[in-house]
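C-alpha cells incoming
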C-alpha cells in the first residue's frame, strides 16, 4: 500500500513539473531568427562596381610606384558599396596611404570615397588584368586573380552552370575595365562558338587555337619568351598553394587566359610548361592539379583551397543583368 501511495505522489509531482515547464516555455520570449543573408545591391552587381575595383587597383599601383615599394601579392578582391578589400597571399602589415591594414596584414581596405581624392592614379596594372568576378557572397562582390594559381583552375558541376560561369569570366576579361589589357584564347572545341553567346563585344584580344600546345606556342612566338621560372612558396596556406608572383608578370606583355575543355587537356608530363608566369589556364571540367572549383545546381560556387564563400556565381549575375537589360 505504501509503495502504491508513493508511486501516485511521484506521478503527480512529475505531471506538475512537466506542466510548469510547458508554461515556462510558453512565457519565454522566442529567440529571433538569424537574419537572412543580405543580397548584393544593383551597384555591387552592376558594371559600375568594376569601375571602382579598377580605380582601386590603379590607385594601388600608383601609390606603390610613388613610394618605391613592390605591389602586394593579392589573390582576391572583395567589394561592397562601403569598402574595397584586397586579400593578400602573404601578410604585409605596412600599407600605403590611404589603405588600411586588417587581419594581421592579410587584408588591405579602402573606402571608395578615398578613391576620388587626389593621388597618383597609376597605369593599368598588367599583373592584375586577370582579376575577374567569380560571384557574390551576400552583399559583397568577389573577384579572384586567376594568374595566382600554380596550375589550372578547373570548374566542375552541372554543364549549364559551369559553362555559364566560364562564359561570364571570359566576357569580363575581354570587356571589363580591370582586364582591359588581357588576352584570351579559346582552345579546341571551345573555339567553335558554343561557349560564348555571340553578343559579346568583338575584340582583337580574343583568339582561338586547335590545341593547348598550339596556343602556348603562338603566345611564346609573339612574345619571344620561354617557359617561366618556378616560384617560391611562402608563409601562409594560400601562398603555399600559389606559385610565382602576380607582380612579376613579363614586362610589357599582357597576361593571357587560356580556356580549354578537360577532355582536351594534355595529360603528359610537362604539357603545361608553356604557361607563363602571370598567365592563367581555365579548364571546363576536372583537372588533376591546381585550383579545383565546383558549382552546384543552386548557383553557389565552392572555391576549393581559396576558401571563399560564393552563394551566387558570376554566371548567375550575368543572367540577371541580361534579364534587366
Amino acid at each position: 500500500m505504501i509503495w502504491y501511495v508513493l508511486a501516485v505522489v511521484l506521478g503527480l509531482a512529475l505531471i506538475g513539473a512537466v506542466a510548469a515547464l510547458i508554461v515556462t516555455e510558453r512565457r519565454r520570449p522566442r529567440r529571433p531568427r538569424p537574419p537572412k543573408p543580405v543580397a548584393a545591391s544593383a551597384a555591387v552587381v552592376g558594371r559600375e562596381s568594376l569601375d571602382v575595383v579598377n580605380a582601386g587597383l590603379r590607385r594601388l599601383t600608383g601609390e606603390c610606384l610613388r613610394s618605391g615599394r613592390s605591389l602586394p601579392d593579392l589573390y582576391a578582391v572583395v567589394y561592397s558599396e562601403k569598402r574595397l578589400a584586397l586579400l593578400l597571399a602573404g601578410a604585409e602589415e605596412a600599407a600605403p596611404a590611404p589603405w588600411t591594414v586588417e587581419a594581421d596584414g592579410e587584408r588591405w581596405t579602402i573606402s571608395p570615397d578615398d578613391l576620388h581624392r587626389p593621388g597618383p592614379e597609376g597605369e593599368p596594372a598588367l599583373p592584375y588584368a586577370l582579376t575577374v568576378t567569380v560571384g557574390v557572397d551576400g552583399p559583397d562582390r568577389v573577384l579572384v586573380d586567376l594568374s595566382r594559381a600554380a596550375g589550372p583552375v578547373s570548374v566542375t558541376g552541372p554543364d549549364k552552370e559551369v559553362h555559364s560561369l566560364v562564359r561570364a569570366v571570359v566576357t569580363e576579361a575581354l570587356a571589363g575595365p580591370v582586364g582591359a589589357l588581357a588576352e584570351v584564347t579559346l582552345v579546341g572545341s571551345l573555339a567553335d562558338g558554343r561557349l560564348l553567346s555571340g553578343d559579346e563585344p568583338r575584340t582583337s584580344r580574343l583568339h582561338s587555337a586547335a590545341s593547348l600546345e598550339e596556343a602556348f606556342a603562338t603566345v611564346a612566338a609573339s612574345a619571344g619568351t620561354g617557359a617561366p621560372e618556378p616560384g617560391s612558396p611562402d608563409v601562409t596556406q594560400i601562398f603555399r598553394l600559389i606559385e610565382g608572383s602576380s607582380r612579376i608578370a613579363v614586362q610589357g606583355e599582357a597576361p593571357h587566359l587560356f580556356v580549354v575543355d578537360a577532355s582536351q587537356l594534355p595529360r603528359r608530363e610537362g604539357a603545361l610548361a608553356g604557361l607563363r608566369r602571370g598567365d592563367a589556364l581555365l579548364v571546363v571540367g576536372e583537372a588533376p592539379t591546381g585550383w579545383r572549383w565546383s558549382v552546384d545546381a543552386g548557383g553557389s560556387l565552392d572555391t576549393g583551397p581559396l576558401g571563399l564563400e560564393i552563394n551566387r556565381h558570376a554566371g548567375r549575375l550575368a543572367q540577371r543583368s541580361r534579364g534587366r537589360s
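note: The CA atoms of residues 45 and 80 lie 10 Å apart.
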